[in-house]
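anyone seen this seq b4? input:
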Amino acid sequence: MVRGIPIEEGSGNVFADLGLPNAEERLAKSHLAGLITDIIRKKGWTQAEAADRLNTHQPTISALRKGRLNSITYDRLVGWLVALGRPVEIRIGLETRREAHVEVAIAGR
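predicted toks r here
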């Protein structure tokens, strides 16, 4: 309780906490999008410049920055990271008895 308001600790995945479907996949996409947005910001590019360099359109970069990722695929996000000079590694684990999951690990962020 904080000031009489009940507080519940989150799981670390806001999408799961909200009960949204495909919560792990949504979280993974948001991590990739956040990294791309950070790189664009650090380079000082406008949305138009970023769109030109990533071979897309300015409204797509705007959607990326706002977290509107429904129309942006994983392969597009990965392609942009490669175009931005970031190496991308995809690992597929061995079959396990527990439920499969998606996870993004970002080095040196």
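The mean pLDDT is 90. Residues 23-43 form the longest helix (21 residues). kinda curious what u guys think
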